[in-house]
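Structure tokens please, single chain.
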Amino acid sequence: MSGSWVPGGPPGGIAPGLHLVATPIGTARDITLRGLDVLAGAEVLMAEDTRTLRHLMEIHGIALDRRPLIACHDHNETEVAARMVAALEAGKSVAYASEAGTPLVSDPGFALVRAAVAAGQRVHAVPGPSAVLAALTLAGLPTDRFLFAGFVPTAAGDRARVLAELAAVPATLVVYESPRRVARTLAEMAQAFGPDRPAAMCRELTKRHEEVRRGTLGELADALQGQEPKGEIVLVVDRAAARVTSAEDLRTALENALQTMSVKDAVAFVSQDLGVPRKEAYRLALELAEQ
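Here you go.
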């Protein structure tokens, strides 16, 4: 298998540096051709789960040969980062793959990137599968602005605080959840966000039993009451509705913002904060700036 050309690398080879390889979240064929090239050609391999990466490589006919395969997970990432930096400083190419999906997105890899950057080494993204993006494309909800909120905390007090913070976010929300807690989370979201907020529950994405349930938070919560669906779950929830803002409130907010911000920044801040159209805020901001 030929190598993958990357900026700064030798023609047909794998460039020195840390390569973050996105791996399938279900179907093994979802890995990119470039991802396969990097796994085949990198001098050092690192993985959140070495068994999973070995299996993926076997499926695609990639031999490990005598290359080191280093486990790097939540419990040893900081310690392993030092070993990775030593390899990078020796001019080697290092590939890191999380168990499934894109490294760093609710998966290990952050400490590796920070260590590589601090050491002045190059970091390369090898993009591909992502449960966040897959869920967004299937949910049927707005995608022009979204917030990935990771997992909802398990402790009751922390859950209530986080859901209260997310309730007013003017962006589509993407949340990971376990099968054991998804019914509880949907019920608590219905209470915190309102039962009529549109949402989708995406389960087992790209796998044989893929399922997408769409409806309101109240409907989804009722449908899952007393159930514990199997598999990996992503919840996608529509953004908070724009608040009704009076002309006086808009003027006051812009006057305050213009004291410390440019017109452009004030418009961006106020329109997002109050949920008003940017054109309306911009027109009034220009009038206030000229006074």
